[in-house]
Amino acid sequence: MLLCHAEVLAGRDRPGALRDMAARTGVPEVAAFAHLIFQSMACGTAISGATIVYAKEMREAREMKAVEKANKLPVQMSGGMATLMLPALLGPTVIRYMAMGS
């Protein structure tokens, strides 16, 4: 962000500086933010309103990712639990079976 600001202060056009900032980071959210700012400037709409809506959407997306991860966790934990509990459940049975055979 600071480099983008420095480029604009040095005389570079804002859309070009924003595009380069998005390319430098390689993060899709930064590219979407840069596009949002560019679009707001081009259409003459208020940047504050657009960024408020964008921030809300980003929060919702982050929350959805967290919920999705939380929903996958029990499935992942059940495999490990089964692996650790199986010897405890089958061990006494195997020992009894071996003792009967001798």
What does this structure look like?
The protein has one domain. α1 (about 1-10) runs antiparallel to α2 (about 15-25), α2 runs antiparallel to α3 and α3 runs antiparallel to α4. It contains 4 helices and no strands. It has about 100 residues and is mostly helical. The protein has helices spanning about 1-10, 15-25, 30-45, 45-100.
Q: Features of this protein?
A:
102 residues, mainly alpha, 4 helices
The whole-number mean of residue pLDDT values reads: 88
Q: For this entry, what is the oligomeric state of its chains?
A: single chain
The total number of structural domains is: 1
Helix content: over 70%
Low-confidence runs (pLDDT<50, min 5 residues)? Answer: none
Give helix and strand order, one letter per element, not per position.
Answer: HHHH
Per DSSP, the total helix count is: 4
> Overall 3D geometry?
rod-shaped
Over the alpha carbons, how many angstroms does the gyration radius reach? 28 Å
Sheet-strand content, in percent, reads under 5%
State the end-to-end distance.
77 Å
Q: Give a count of the beta strands, DSSP E runs of length 2 or more.
A: 0
